[in-house]
Design brief:
It is a multi-pass membrane protein. Helix content is 55%, strand content 0%. It has 174 residues and is mainly α. The chain has a domain of 105 residues.
Amino acid sequence: MSDWFNNLTDPLTIQPVNKIESPNAFPKPLLKSNKQLNSNNIPQQQQPHFQIDQLKLSKAWDIALAPGKQLPMTLFMSYMSGSSLQLIPLSMTFMLFVNSINSIININSQFNGLITDKNKDNIILTKFIYIILQILTLTVGIWKLNTMGLIPNQRGDWLAWESSTKYIEKLIII
């Protein structure tokens, strides 16, 4: 072996570094005791579980608010695709309905790994918000179908079920 390897790995020749100075123009680090580092009143053993619960709740809120973040883009794309009966607007509207309904059906698989005993109530709230935002996405699809004229909401759409008007007066020509 070479000398430099022996010098760096030999425990007798290694000199411990007690103090490393900060680089120029950087403040000196403030050493904090363990009590200052754990300023929360949470015991040392319970802190990681508390942090994991908070991280899981944060992730649940991210999942719950994701459809709301996509809603403006969905509205814009629905508006820009036009109101004609063509393949692109119809397929986009169909996928909007399918994705929203599948998301509502599979809501438990979305939040499955995030539920703990401590945050169960908060996860139920995030699920509720998630469902509301998916229903808002469905209303965008209903609006799109209405602009395409596929929802029968006018009197002319129901003419087949109306009876014809019978006139009592007779026209007499002299």
